[in-house]
Design goal:
With 251 residues, this protein is of the alpha+beta class. 20% of the residues lie in helices and 27% in strands. It binds uracil. Residues 116-117, 120, 197-200, 213 line the site of uracil (URA).
Length: 251
């Protein structure tokens, strides 16, 4: 089996089941990315028996060896964080704001699936399972996200119907959603798209700007028993359910 060797520009930028060899080695704790590049350049890294190159991409099934010794495969991890307000969903922020990765364990290294705005609270999944993350983010699988939105003013029934039917945004019409009233100025909106600032844009478009946004459910996972800022590992059944939702379950 040969590892993929392709110029980065020709690769699909969304297929996260393959990672660059230096990133693979860094995640496995062998060296920093730069250190891994040095190992690769020195010819000390082999992928499926062939010399690895700086533009080699590998997947979980590939055999990676350094100085003839197999690199231990990284354990797959799946965590659910109750994201508090005030943290940005990025690995590192040039403006030095606090990031969600500070709130989850460093090893194995996991990354958030999708994003929540800095002021949005709620369910945020982290994993190092690139294939699952890619599928969860893919529109084809219509992963449900449930939001509780506190609005600046009380929405009419008509407003709720309009939100559910779809709203014309700059990047096109939103897909049908579910909208229901939870309180005078509080609504629940269930959507299966993941456009940037989608809920805020939808609510603003119907004249009811969001003053507070919370994601209560992501892909069937809720925050029961978790406090803001805390995370928990998913159990095997929850991971299987996510795989089922995204067509990755065996059998
Ligand atoms: N929609 C938004 O507007 N913001 C979020 O953080 C998530 C969904």
């Amino acid at each position: 089996m040969h590892a993929r060797v392709e110029p980065a520009a020709n690769r699909s930028t969304v297929d996260t089941s393959f990672v660059r060899l230096n990133a693979y080695l860094a995640r496995a704790g062998v060296a920093s990315r730069r250190g891994a590049d040095e190992l690769i350049k020195a010819g000390r890294v082999r992928v499926n028996g062939e010399p690895g190159q700086l533009n080699t991409f590998v997947a979980a099934r590939d055999l990676v060896e350094v100085d003839g010794k197999p690199v231990a495969k990284q354990k797959l991890a799946y965590l659910l964080l109750y994201k508090p307000a005030g943290f940005v969903t990025t690995a590192s922020d040039p403006q030095k704001r606090r990031t969600v990765v500070e709130l989850v364990p460093r090893t194995p290294r996991v990354v958030p699936v999708g994003r929540l705005d800095a002021d949005t609270t709620g369910a945020l999944l982290f994993t190092n399972d690139g294939q699952l993350a890619h599928h969860l983010a893919h529109p084809r699988y219509e992963i449900e996200k449930v939001y509780e939105a506190e609005l600046e003013r009380e929405p009419t029934d008509d407003v709720l119907r309009t939100l559910a039917a779809g709203i014309e945004l700059e990047d096109g019409r939103t897909a049908p959603a579910k909208a229901r009233r939870l309180g005078p100025k509080l609504i629940e909106l269930s959507i299966h798209e993941g456009r940037k600032h989608q809920v805020k844009l939808m609510c603003a478009a119907v004249g009811c700007p969001v003053v507070r946004l919370h994601r209560s459910v992501y892909a069937g996972l809720d925050l029961d028993g978790l406090a803001a800022g805390k995370w928990r590992a998913l159990d095997r059944g929850e991971v299987e359910a996510l795989k089922k939702l995204t067509g990755l379950a065996a059998g």
